[in-house]
Amino acid sequence: MPLKNFAVVNHPARMRIFQALTGVELSINQLSRVLPDIPKPSLYRHVHKMLEAGVVRVARTRHIHGIEERFFIAEEGLIDPADVFQPGGLEQFADHVQLYGSSVAQDLANYVLERGEPDLNNIIAREYTFYATEEEFMKVRQAICDLLEELQKNPPAAGRTKRRMFVMGHPLRAALLADQANSDAG
């Protein structure tokens, strides 16, 4: 299901909630432990708004002492390319990329701080820059996606930890600007 409502996800708290609920079922109480800086009433309000937009759903419920506890999970999906081409869509997409990347980086930083050590065997924070034609880049992109999609099929098992790999690839703006300046000067 494509995520069509940028306005719902493009909010710092909701982006973090969405990230926390990606592939994990959490109750509001559990979510408040994962995101202790967001007050519980705000969590309820944000999750409700996300439910209404279809960005998260109730994965399951359980009853404890007559009270229904709901567990939420993020709806998987891609941004509908048509939304990017709507009026204001490009700006909303840029906001989405910025918030998403910041949220992933914040999650990694919190993991490192909570452990009290960098845990270099279990994290990767690395940047690669390289020259590639459009065809070479598409080949690398597809190979990475194929490998990660295979790993996504792994069921939970002893020794397996749920992990995240956030991959971003794009032409370097500074290099493009330098190339343009060089061609303008020549």
UniProtKB/TrEMBL annotation:
Coiled-coil region list: none
Domain (HTH arsR-type): give its ranges: 4-80
Any one Gene Ontology molecular-function term assigned to this protein's record: DNA-binding transcription factor activity
Query: Which SMART domains does this one have?
Result: HTH_ARSR
Q: Which domain of life is it from?
A: Bacteria
User: What Gene3D superfamilies does UniProt report for this protein, alphabetically?
Assistant: 6.10.140.2180, Winged helix-like DNA-binding domain superfamily/Winged helix DNA-binding domain
Listed name of the protein: Regulatory protein, ArsR
Q: Which organism is it from?
A: Chloroflexus aurantiacus (strain ATCC 29366 / DSM 635 / J-10-fl)
